[in-house]
Backbone:
């Protein structure tokens, strides 16, 4: 045991491996902070490079890459309100509003710091409870997944600012969009109007860029003040001392200083949200994006200031930011123990592992002890690498704050176009982004939140699939969704989540009266 | 402002005209390939086809000495990727990793694209279907399973892919070969082998049909058992798994993966690509990487491959159009059930909004002062222009011209806008197409 630990630690401290981690951190940060380029894509693109690396270095590259990409996805949310990855969509409005209130550095500092906290929590679960928790992944049949998605959707309604009814409207709109294209269960075309491009359906990445990013541009160009900055300047306290003290350590404190306060004030809450994130990560049908939504909803319910959520809540950013990074390590648990990918990234990881002749399975912990312990160390290393990488990216992104709006708008439009095109090389996606931009613009005029639309598009397909699969498997009987005890429990939870807005409204009415 | 805008635009058009002339004059078509090649993979990143595509891309890149970039064009059960590949520009710079679905999609009336729209380059892999059950299941042989199915028609549940996918056809073919009907096993339409295997473990399914490679981790972990593989002989990496033939059933079926280009690509270019593919597929690194991945490497020349595709197309077409299979298509919940449910819910919510909101939201929804009511249409116009010309003119020219024009239009001074455009656009192109390997429109000039 001790010998294995020492051996794996030496393997991790190998200069080549450290170099790989550093390069992956930079690459992941760049990829995550460019809207339209997802963490999954980043990992798929480095697969050819992993052929030339040792197994541990190859997996280290993936681990660092995904952690940095998911964490850096928050940066464009704060700057231009475009979530860099879908995992940031839940709290994109909060980051953007905080930045506009002059808290750009502080808000992103909180996001990065809690990504680290959540990430380390996930690693701890992976290290100590991988085998018992992996069973979790094999407990869920389509019936349990159906209820789980209903819970996820309910959270989007709970967190939507303003009226829950408007949140539900946005959600249903997103769910309807998800039915466009080839129905995955029936393999029949719906709402395609005979156009082959519509067969692939409405991809959520161009939709997200349009709904969040382009709609904000449309709003900006129709309000006066072309010379204004898009983002309010951060409040930078005067610093004195040496260059290092001014530029590095001082700034480090500006960025991350606020985070520790939040952590000390509510340590239990952070642990709970990290745990939610990890468990959702373990489930093969759900990943970092849903983890962020669910913990954001949970956080709002528990908060003393729920009205801030969606308008700039640091607590919400902290909780959801911790959850989406915790989900990443969670996804590795079923992948290592059963060879079942916990999300799309671990699906690629399994491919890399087979190419490296590593077979996942319960015995991997004994047979490949050095590698597995090495992975733990790499996970810790990758999460610590988030701090310097995040700090650099936040500082670099902060330069955009100085750019006047009349210069920034055309550039953002260009990146919206590239981001929509990059995912599948299709002009249809660019046109889709455009249409979604218009829709988002109109919805926000009517004070309807756009976040639930994105979640609806993401979860609509899986929700319908599980529903129809459940019915098919039971040959037409609806009882399949309550006959298993776990499904029944989740059904009750789903009901409570959906009734929450009504309960809160009733309680408010009573206290007001 | 207007005068300011017209001068740079005129200058720009002159610059563009000169650049176009210069570039067309220089673009000599000597060697093929001399530019990056795009490899379309119709399936998602991380799946079996994606892994094969990325391995091929790496090796072809070394052989052809140009970058080979994989792009995942997913959706529509393979329709999107296959039609994109078939309709791509016929200069040989867009290849497609076609899979066996090319022989089923047009029979299922999902697209008119078939293998006839492609010029084959070479077969690269062939993976047989195999039958899996949980390791605690009572069946030890395929015969046991067959008897249970015969006794309890329709109660066993199976999956591995969506309805009418290749693994479903494999199961139907086996059932047909032993005198049972496809409907004697309930096929649950689950997209992909990984979620199907997971459902098998959770107890939601009794049988999974997929390739041995896809089930390898669970097979090695002893969680699932394979009752038989639908190949002519045993697969070397899985020597313990018997074939159907050994168990007295003469039936074999599986997936094939091959490289192809659009029909109209010049024959000398097809030959150049086919030579490269032949070298790559016979290389040691390809064979060993495929073997460790659990895939069965295979090779067929373009002519031979054409015959294989023809044959597969006829065989799967016959299966798909059989009465037994067509009766399956009617499922318990129709395709319009879910959308109708959503529309009904949407109607309820909208009624709720109409009844509840006006009293509260009046006044709060006051719109901020506006520059012009129609200003928001302008970014849409620029994006529309980009969509219209980028494919012909390429990213650099289109994005450069539009970015510069829009910057100037919004009032950025030319001395800032010009250098900004000249730096930002090429750097962006380089970062995406070069560094990150995400292709941007190349245009007729090659950039």
Residues:
């Amino acid at each position: 045991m001790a010998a294995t630990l020492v051996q794996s630690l030496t393997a991790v401290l190998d200069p080549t491996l450290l170099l790989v981690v550093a390069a992956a951190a930079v690459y992941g940060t760049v990829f995550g902070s460019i809207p339209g380029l997802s963490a999954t894509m980043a990992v798929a693109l480095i697969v050819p490079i992993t052929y030339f690396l040792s197994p541990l270095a190859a997996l280290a590259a993936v681990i660092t890459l995904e952690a940095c990409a998911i964490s850096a996805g928050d940066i464009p949310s704060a700057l231009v309100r475009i979530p860099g990855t879908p995992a940031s969509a839940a709290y994109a409005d909060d980051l953007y509003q905080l930045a506009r209130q002059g808290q750009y550095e502080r808000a992103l500092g909180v996001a990065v710091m809690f990504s680290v906290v959540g990430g380390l929590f996930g690693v701890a679960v992976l290290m100590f409870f991988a085998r018992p928790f992996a069973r979790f992944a094999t407990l869920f049949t389509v019936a349990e997944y159906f209820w789980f998605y209903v819970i996820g959707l309910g959270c989007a309604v709970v967190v939507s600012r303003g009226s829950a009814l408007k949140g539900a409207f946005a959600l249903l709109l997103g769910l309807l969009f998800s039915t466009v294209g080839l129905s995955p269960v029936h393999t029949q075309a719906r709402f395609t109007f005979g156009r082959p491009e519509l067969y692939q359906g409405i991809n959520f990445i161009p939709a997200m860029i349009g709904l969040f990013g382009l709609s904000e541009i449309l709003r900006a160009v129709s309000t006066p003040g072309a010379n204004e900055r898009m983002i309010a300047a951060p409040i930078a306290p005067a610093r004195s001392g040496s260059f290092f003290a001014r530029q590095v350590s001082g700034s480090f404190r500006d960025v991350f200083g606020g985070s520790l306060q939040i952590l000390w004030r509510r340590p239990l809450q952070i642990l709970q949200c990290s745990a939610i994130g990890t468990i959702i990560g373990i489930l093969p049908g759900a990943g970092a994006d849903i983890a962020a939504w669910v913990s954001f909803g949970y956080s709002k319910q528990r908060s003393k200031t729920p009205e801030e959520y969606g308008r700039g809540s640091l607590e919400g950013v902290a909780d959801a930011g911790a959850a989406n990074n915790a989900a990443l390590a969670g996804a590795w648990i079923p992948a290592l123990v059963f060879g079942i990918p916990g999300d799309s990234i671990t699906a690629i990881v399994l491919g890399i592992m087979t190419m490296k002749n590593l077979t996942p399975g319960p015995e991997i912990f004994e047979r490949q002890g050095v590698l597995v312990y090495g992975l733990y160390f790499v996970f810790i290393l990758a999460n610590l690498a988030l701090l310097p990488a995040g700090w650099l990216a936040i500082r670099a992104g902060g330069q955009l704050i100085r750019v006047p709006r009349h210069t920034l708008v055309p550039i953002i439009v260009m990146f919206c176009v590239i981001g929509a095109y990059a995912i599948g090389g299709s002009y249809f996606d660019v046109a889709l982004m455009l249409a979604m931009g218009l829709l988002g613009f109109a919805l926000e005029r009517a004070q309807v939140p756009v976040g639930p639309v994105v979640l609806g598009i993401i979860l609509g397909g899986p929700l319908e699939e599980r529903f129809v699969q459940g019915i098919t498997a039971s040959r037409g009987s609806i009882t399949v969704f309550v006959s298993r005890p776990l499904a029944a429990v989740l059904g009750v939870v789903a009901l409570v989540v959906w009734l929450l807005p009504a309960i809160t409204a009733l309680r408010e009415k009573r206290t007001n009266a | 402002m207007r005068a300011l805008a017209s001068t740079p635009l005129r200058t720009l058009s002159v610059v563009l005209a000169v650049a176009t002339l210069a570039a067309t004059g220089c673009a000599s078509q000597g060697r093929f390939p001399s530019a990056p090649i795009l490899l379309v993979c119709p399936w998602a990143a991380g799946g079996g086809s994606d892994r094969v595509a990325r391995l091929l891309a790496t090796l072809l890149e070394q052989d052809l000495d140009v970058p080979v970039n994989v792009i995942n064009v997913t959706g529509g059960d393979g329709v999107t990727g296959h039609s994109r590949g078939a309709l791509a520009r016929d200069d040989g710079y867009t290849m497609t990793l076609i899979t066996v679905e090319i022989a089923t999609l047009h029979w299922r009336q999902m697209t008119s694209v078939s293998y006839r729209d492609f010029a084959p380059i070479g077969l690269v892999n062939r993976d047989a279907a195999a039958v899996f059950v949980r390791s605690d299941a009572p069946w030890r042989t395929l015969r046991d399973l067959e008897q249970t199915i015969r006794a309890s028609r329709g109660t066993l549940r199976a999956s591995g892919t969506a309805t009418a996918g290749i693994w479903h056809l494999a199961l139907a073919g086996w059932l047909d070969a032993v005198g049972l009907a496809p409907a004697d096993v309930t096929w649950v339409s689950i997209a992909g082998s990984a979620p199907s295997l997971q459902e098998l473990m959770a107890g939601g399914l009794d049988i999974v049909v997929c390739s041995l490679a896809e089930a390898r981790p669970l097979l090695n972990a002893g969680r699932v058992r394979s009752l038989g593989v639908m190949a002519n002989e045993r697969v070397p990496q899985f020597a313990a798994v018997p074939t159907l033939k050994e168990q007295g059933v003469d039936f074999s079926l599986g997936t094939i993966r091959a490289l192809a280009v659009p029909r109209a690509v010049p024959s000398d270019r097809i030959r150049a690509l086919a030579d490269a593919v032949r070298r790559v597929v016979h290389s040691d690194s390809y064979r060993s990487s495929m073997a460790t991945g659990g895939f069965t490497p295979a090779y067929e020349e373009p002519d031979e491959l054409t015959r294989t595709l023809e044959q597969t197309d006829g065989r799967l077409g016959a299966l798909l159009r059989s009465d037994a299979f067509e009766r399956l298509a009617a499922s318990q919940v129709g395709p319009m059930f879910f959308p109708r449910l959503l529309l009904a819910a949407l109607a309820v919510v909208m009624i709720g909004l109409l009844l509840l909101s006006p009293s509260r939201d009046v006044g709060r929804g006051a719109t901020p002062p506006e520059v012009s009511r129609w200003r928001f249409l302008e970014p849409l116009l620029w994006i529309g222009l980009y969509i219209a010309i980028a494919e012909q003119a390429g990213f650099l020219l289109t994005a450069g011209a539009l970015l510069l024009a829009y910057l100037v239009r919004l009032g950025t001074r030319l001395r800032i806008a010009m250098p900004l455009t000249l730096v930002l656009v090429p750097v962006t192109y380089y970062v995406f197409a070069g560094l990150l390997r995400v292709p941007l429109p190349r245009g007729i000039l090659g950039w």
